[in-house]
Amino acid sequence: MLYKIRKMTKTFKNRTILNLEQLDIEKGKIYALVGANGAGKTTLLNILSFLDKPHTGQLDFCGEPVLYGNHQLLKLRRKVVLLDQYPILFTGPVWKNIEFGLKVRSIPRAQCKKRVEEVLNLVGMGDFFHAEGHKLSGGETKRVALARALAIEPEVLLCDEPTANVDAENQAIILNILQQINSEQKTSIIFATHYLSQMRRLASHTLTLEHGHLSQQKKENSYTCTVITRKENGLLCYLNDAVSLFFAGNSHPEVEKGTKIHIDPLRISIGKSKNSLAENTLRGVVVKIEQNNTLIRIDMDCGLRIRVVLTKDEYRDLQPQVGEKLQIGIPDEAIEFSP
Ligand SMILES: Nc1ncnc2c1ncn2[C@@H]1O[C@H](COP(=O)(O)OP(=O)(O)OP(=O)(O)O)[C@@H](O)[C@H]1O
User: Fold this and answer.
1) How far apart are CA 295 and CA 210, in angstroms?
2) Pocket probe mutation, ligand 1, options 15, 43, 158, 213, max atoms within 8 Å of Cβ
3) Could you state a single Gene Ontology molecular function term (predicted)?
């Protein structure tokens, strides 16, 4: 396990900002951290990057308790890098900004130069080697800051809204890089975002914070597999004797009658017509719409009550009405089984 958190709180001026009962974060995965403004995302990232410490509770990193002594913190901070929401580059050329972290790690000069070139090329900023760091645009600054973070080859990359203040083209570049370093270098990534589309595209796991608490969103759609039919090309599961979902392939040998199935409401797509990309689609009627902070919860009756969560923008585009018939799409990534 990469991080293990138990009964952790963080308080500012008697106000509890974070209150996490239990959280386990696995190595080598991409986690999205979502939640409204002020939910505690940055506070949690600061704790995970060892730049801040919790007031109570336990944090383990790679199986060892974090003790918050200076010597231990220095060692941990070499493995974990936080890319700030609004990174600052210091005065001087781009290459010096990136070289800094390598120099403090006593990497030989020639190796430093090679590494700076490599990471600048990786983020598509190879031509900016000699450019003045503090004169770059917002999107360029973010990419150079990402290069600076990657130069030291961290085990964990934490990103606070990696695409804030960045145009669409640069957003796509940054998201591609995150995906690439996770799949090629197995870097664990946790990124805070306000975009569910980014979460759906990049992350295999989602952590939702509401007023400093982890929301059990997945548990809002929990069902029991009542009938399982194994077919040559996959598995057909009936949920609560009401609707069936099909899982292609034979990757779910553990699933049997009585297994619980959770469907992440943040990953379900909803629309007027069928989503041809989702593995399973169901037709249903909107029975309830509820707003909670920046997220909108829509309860659908598809023969089974299924909750879908949308952002305000997605809600505005769709304008669903109670009583309206809509299609929902359930991708495989939205599904989790538990005994
Ligand atoms: N140093 C501090 N002193 C006092 N309050 C703080 C401090 N840092 C954060 N807070 C408060 O803690 C709460 C959580 O802040 P945090 O920045 O973690 O939220 P967030 O989820 O990252 O928000 P956003 O999406 O707006 O970036 C906010 O109410 C904020 O005002």
Assistant:
1) 11
2) 43
3) ATP hydrolysis activity
